[in-house]
């Protein structure tokens, strides 16, 4: 095994069990590891620190796996991590009302660069590091042993793959090709998931409980679901007896699937409409038309991909939320989210306070939304925390 030696004083984060080593922290590499190889990381005094995946194409040159020198990172090591992660999700699936969740969440589950989402009997994986690419045969074998999935589909079309010098993929790894729409259940509601063509791996299961909580406010209310995708918030609100729900998204495929989901759940009789539009433009149009709502959901895509983009993203979040607040009836509810890891909850509250001032509104934070337990956060890896939201009462 090849030794990678850190510069003097660069071992602190590693000793704190942070799983990333940036290329700038490395003094020497003893030999020529292939990208994806497991290496031994040593401090400047040549003392062992940890084992990790090496990749000289990535800014994160080493992704750490194991800090105990006496534990071999072999097939059994990977199998064990998969078993522990899958077992930790069992309670989510136990009562049968939900059969979709995230089974493996990358660094947070000690498997850097691997995401596995369960869609009923099908699995969608994202492999974002070359080390994990090498480990896939044993990981797939363990997933097959534990879950006997009908298919394992590789949906690794994330830009992060390019940082590791990996090609984008969209291929079947095991089993038979999943149908165009895989049927899943979440909170007792059925969804068709387009694994191959849909966004991310097909569904945003990180909003599971947030949809449920918001739906408890929805009865007899007029709701606007912005960035609706395939209707997670929309369908939960319709099930809870919302007076009407309008869903807005710019993706035609997402809205097509949403309409299909309305039929599947036999909500055709409910007052629902879908608008294919840019959300900002549509909110301005509602303002011109004098259209008002009781509940508004704002669940935009990631505005701040990195810390350096935070200022600009904060302005975008502020403008969006100001528009939303202006369209609420007095005492109405705004459920507003940010899935930008770079934006923490305190900053998000500040952004909303500015939005309220600009909108001429008073805002009360009623509830703080976050990511669910199948998206855990490792104490030593706060970067794993990304989804946050606020339920705001607006006057
Ligand atoms: N709320 C959804 C998930 C939202 S994901 C759920 O519960 O499943 C973000 C969505 O925003 C995607 O569906 C994407 O198509 C849409 N989107 C991105 N930019 C947009 C824009 N400017 N206007 C409207 N929709 C947009």
TrEMBL record:
Listed InterPro entries: PUA (IPR002478), PUA-like_sf (IPR015947), PUA_sf (IPR036974), RlmI-like_PUA (IPR041532), SAM-dep_methyl-trfase (IPR019614), SAM-dependent_MTases_sf (IPR029063)
Pfam families to which the protein is assigned, alphabetical: Methyltrans_SAM, PUA_3
Domain PUA: 2-87
Compartments in which it is found: Cytoplasm
The keyword Transferase belongs to this UniProt entry's keyword annotation: yes
A single GO BP: methylation
Organism the protein comes from: Mucilaginibacter terrigena
Annotated GO CC locations: cytoplasm
Entry similarity comment: Belongs to the methyltransferase superfamily. RlmI family.
Molecular function GO terms recorded: methyltransferase activity; RNA binding
Origin: domain of life: Bacteria
UniProt key word rRNA processing: yes
Protein name, per record: Class I SAM-dependent rRNA methyltransferase
Signal peptide residues on this chain, from the entry's feature table: none
Keywords per UniProt: Cytoplasm, Methyltransferase, RNA-binding, rRNA processing, S-adenosyl-L-methionine, Transferase
Transmembrane spans: none
């Amino acid at each position: 095994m090849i030794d990678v030696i850190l510069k003097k004083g660069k071992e602190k984060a590693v000793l704190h069990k942070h799983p990333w080593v940036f290329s700038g922290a490395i003094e020497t590499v003893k030999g020529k590891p292939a990208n994806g190889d497991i290496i031994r990381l040593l401090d400047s005094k040549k003392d062992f620190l940890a084992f990790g995946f090496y990749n000289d194409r990535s800014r994160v040159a080493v992704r750490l796996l194991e800090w105990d020198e006496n534990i071999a990172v072999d097939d059994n090591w990977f199998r064990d991590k998969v078993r522990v992660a899958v077992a930790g999700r069992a309670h989510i699936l136990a009562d049968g009302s939900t059969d979709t969740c995230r089974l493996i969440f990358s660094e947070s589950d000690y498997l850097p660069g691997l995401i596995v989402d369960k869609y009923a009997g099908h699995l969608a994986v994202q492999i974002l590091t070359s080390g994990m690419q090498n480990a896939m045969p044993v990981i797939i074998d363990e997933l097959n042993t534990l879950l006997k999935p009908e298919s394992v589909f590789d949906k690794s079309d994330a830009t992060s793959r390019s940082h590791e010098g990996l090609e984008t993929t969209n291929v079947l790894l095991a089993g038979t090709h999943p149908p165009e729409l895989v049927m899943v259940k979440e909170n007792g509601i059925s969804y068709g998931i387009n694994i191959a063509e849909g966004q991310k791996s097909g569904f945003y299961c990180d909003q599971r409980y947030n949809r449920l909580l918001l739906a408890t406010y929805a009865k007899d209310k007029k709701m606007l679901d912005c960035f609706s995708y395939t209707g997670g918030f929309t369908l939960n609100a319709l099930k809870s007896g919302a007076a009407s729900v309008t869903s807005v998204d710019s993706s035609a495929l997402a809205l097509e699937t949403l309409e299909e989901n309305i039929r599947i759940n036999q909500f055709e009789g409910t007052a629902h409409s879908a608008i294919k539009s840019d959300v900002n433009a549509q909110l301005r149009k509602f303002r011109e038309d004098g259209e008002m709502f009781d509940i508004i959901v704002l669940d935009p895509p990631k505005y701040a991909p990195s810390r350096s983009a935070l200022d600009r993203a904060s302005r975008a979040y502020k403008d969006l939320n100001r528009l939303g607040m202006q369209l609420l009836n007095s005492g109405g509810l705004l459920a507003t989210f940010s899935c930008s890891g770079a934006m923490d909850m305190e900053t998000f509250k500040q952004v909303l306070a500015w939005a309220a001032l600009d909108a001429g509104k008073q805002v009360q934070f009623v509830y703080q939304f976050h990511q669910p337990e199948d998206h855990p956060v490792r104490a030593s890896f706060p970067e794993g925390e990304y989804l946050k939201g606020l339920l705001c009462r607006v006057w």
